[in-house]
Amino acid sequence: MGASNWKKITKQLKNKPAKLQRFLKHNKPKERTTGKARMRCERTDQFGGHIKSYGLNYCRQAFREIAEEIGFKKYN
Q1: pTM for the complete prediction?
Q2: Contact 38, 45 (CB under 8 A)
Q3: What is the pLDDT along the chain (76 residues), one digit of tens a residue?
Q4: How many whole angstroms separate alpha carbon 23 and alpha carbon 51?
Q5: Same domain as 26, residue 3
Q6: What is the SS3 assignment for 67?
Q7: Please, are residues 24 and 18 in contact by the beta-carbon 8 Å criterion?
Q8: How far apart are CA 47 and CA 33, in angstroms?
Q9: How far apart are CA 1 and CA 18, in angstroms?
Q10: Are residues 55 and 25 located together in one domain of the fold?
Q11: Judgement on whether residues 74 and 48 belong to the same structural domain of the protein
Q12: Same-domain pairing of 76 and 48
């Protein structure tokens, strides 16, 4: 079971609160405070190529798609 599957299992255990609490205690990944995995893109959930200037929190691919919509201009 990887880190991406722990949320799926919590949905299955929602009717069993005691088992859910025990599962979360031992299997929930800890919150990141530093490193590459701390910031994720809001649109694609990717880690790399992150643009956090102006509070955007987008990866570079997502930024290219929506740059003109949010007011940025492309210069030659």
Answers
A1: 0.56
A2: no
A3: 445 577 788 888 889 999 999 988 888 878 888 888 788 888 988 888 888 888 889 999 999 999 999 999 888 7
A4: 35
A5: yes
A6: coil
A7: no
A8: 14
A9: 20
A10: no
A11: yes
A12: yes
- Position 1 scores a pLDDT of 45
Q: Are residues 43 and 75 in the same domain?
A: yes
Domain count for the chain = 2
Residues 22 and 49 both lie in one domain: no
Range of the domain at 59: 39-76
Q: Does 26 share its domain with 47?
A: no
DSSP 65: H
* Residues 24 and 44 both lie in one domain: no
Q: Which of 68, 42, 45 is nearest to 56 (CA)?
A: 42
Strand partners, 58: 51
Length of the chain: 76
How many of the other CB atoms lie within 10 Å of CB of 41?
Answer: 20
SS3 51: strand
